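Before the break, one more example. Copy the sequence into your notebook; we will annotate it together after we see the structure.
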Amino acid sequence: MDFKTEKLRGPTVEYTNIFTLKSGEEITESMFAFKDKGNRDVCLKPEQTASTARFFIENFKNFAFPLKFYYFCPVFRYDEPQHARYREFWHLGVELIGSNNPESDAEVISLAYEGLKSLNLNFVLELSNIKVIKGVLNSANLREEDKKKILHYIDKHNDEGIDEILKRTDRGEILNKVLSFKGNRENLSDLKNLLRKRLKELTNWKMF
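Here is what the structure looks like once it is written out:
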């Protein structure tokens, strides 16, 4: 299959606020952030996704939809170096923008599968949906700051940080079960049963 994606070349130094808007001010603790000679808050980019979003917002009028980009670039995190996690590493990703068709999601998943398969690797594809996670968080009695922290902790696999925040809400138990849910297609019925069991607790939630 020919996926026909265009390579996106982004800058190494980015505006800090495009990352804090997504993940909250706390993310600056794990970034190489500083002020440039123009007294602007900038950083060595910790990931490429937000940079791609900025590029799209600034230039989308010049393109025809859907847009297909890929990138493979160095990124930087001010974390404690550990096994297979370094302060400088490479971020490989694909973005398909401007299509709501399920076929577009399938195309990106297929690209990931075919790419990993061509490397003769043993792998498992794990799928998630940030809209579902945000919908769950928006349905809870949480501050915006805490929602951003949870998203940051999910990225860091910081279960203790998530638990600490969820203790502050009376819906912490069900939130924890939904956020920590993992499994295959067959396991989705378990999640549905969990939500049905807690239906009374969900009656005052905003639906997503």
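The chain has a mean pLDDT of 83. The longest helix spans residues 102-118. Try to locate both features in your own notes.
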